[in-house]
Specification:
5-stranded antiparallel sheet; 2 domains; globular; alpha+beta; 296 residues
Length: 296
């Protein structure tokens, strides 16, 4: 049993979720979390938990027997990414992209990439099919098996590696997650993109998905762009292409909010977070449109 380690690992950090907190009559700050109930074919609302109660997995990033501790990825890797991401997020909310340094852009893009890298389904694929593929390749390697036989080792390459080096699963998870966060294609493309923040007023409100980053197209493609709801009334837009960026910026505010909200509902794994008790009505229509993908 793991004792003294952080075990609840957020794949959407609390500082981002907190922007969608609403205050109940009791004085408690909670999230209005909407999801699709496929049995009743209706949208359900949970309103009893705050930001700490959503978008986390128990031992999601745990690496048993890791020399730097089982929570090395959570506390050693993502904690720093989230700290820098939180600072950049606050600056974007208060000052916009003006004066946002290249270093801050790099830190925030790494944070954006990390939102995908630590998703539960990504981690699950690495731990299952990814690790199985690595073990299969090791055990099928004729040269490695020949060398082991020459030295009188009777273990399989996988067994020998884990006895002498360490857990293949730990190595695979930490290597792939860190690689995805340092994406050699997505990182420079996003840093060198056109950046802007659209601010909305009145009844135009953005929802936040439990998969917050909206990505359209392949990184670097002419029609690609990223969008992230920073708060219910602010949307960050990035695109490497001048005409795509200006097309997004010139859209009517209502259309931009509607498109962003449709993408958030369409891409969510389970929850979207709103700011009004009345969101349930129009969210039902969006969830119905993605019904075949509900609870993917």
């Amino acid at each position: 049993m793991l004792v003294g380690y952080r075990r609840n690992h957020h794949y959407v950090p609390e500082f981002l979720l907190r922007q969608w907190s609403v205050r109940k009559e009791t004085g408690d700050d909670v999230l209005l979390a909407y999801s699709w109930n496929s049995h009743k074919e209706e949208v359900t609302l949970k309103s009893n938990l705050g930001p700490s109660g959503y978008c986390y997995g128990r031992d999601l990033l745990t690496l048993p027997d890791h020399p730097q501790g089982p929570d090395h990825l959570e506390c050693g890797h993502f904690e720093e990414i989230d700290r820098l991401g939180s600072n950049a997020h606050l600056k974007l909310l208060s000052d916009g992209v003006e004066g946002f340094s290249r270093k801050q852009k790099e830190e925030f893009v790494k944070f954006l990439l990390s939102l995908e890298a630590r998703r539960p389904d990504v981690l699950s694929r690495i731990r299952t099919s990814g690790v199985a593929d690595i073990k299969q390749q090791l055990d099928d390697d004729v040269e490695i098996k020949s060398e082991l036989a020459r030295f009188g080792a009777d273990e399989s390459p996988t067994q020998f590696y884990e006895k002498t080096v360490g857990s293949i699963e730990n190595e695979a998870v930490s290597t792939v997650v860190e690689y995805l966060t340092e994406d050699s294609i997505g990182l420079p493309v996003a840093m060198n993109s056109y950046w802007s923040i659209k601010k909305f007023s009145g009844s135009l409100k953005l929802v936040l998905s439990d998969r917050p980053l909206i990505r359209h197209g392949v990184s670097g493609a002419k029609n690609s762009f990223w969008a992230l709801p920073l708060s219910p009334d602010k949307l960050l837009l990035l695109s490497p292409t001048d005409h795509v960026f200006h097309s997004l910026m010139s859209r009517p505010p209502g259309e931009l909010v509607r498109k962003a909200n449709i993408s958030s509902v369409s891409n969510c794994d389970q929850y979207v977070f709103g700011t009004s008790w009345y969101d349930q009505r129009w969210l039902k229509k969006l969830f119905e449109q993605r019904r075949p993908h509900a609870h993917r």
